[in-house]
Amino acid sequence: MGDMSEGTVSLPWIVIRQDDNGNRYRVGRYATRAEAQKIADSLDDRGHKQLYWVERIGQNGDGSRN
Asked: Does the CA dihedral 39-44-49-54 come out positive or negative?
């Protein structure tokens, strides 16, 4: 109901980094999965041992089970 652009989910894709100790950091938020994936891939290409991946923020906030 209403305009997508005025929700809290206008940047629903986040790039997460996990270091060797299992700590997770949010690297950034992006409007599209392709954009987020491009960032994650370019970070991965630097050869760090860290892991990067893309997650989607649930439409209904942090209570999302998916």
From this structure: positive
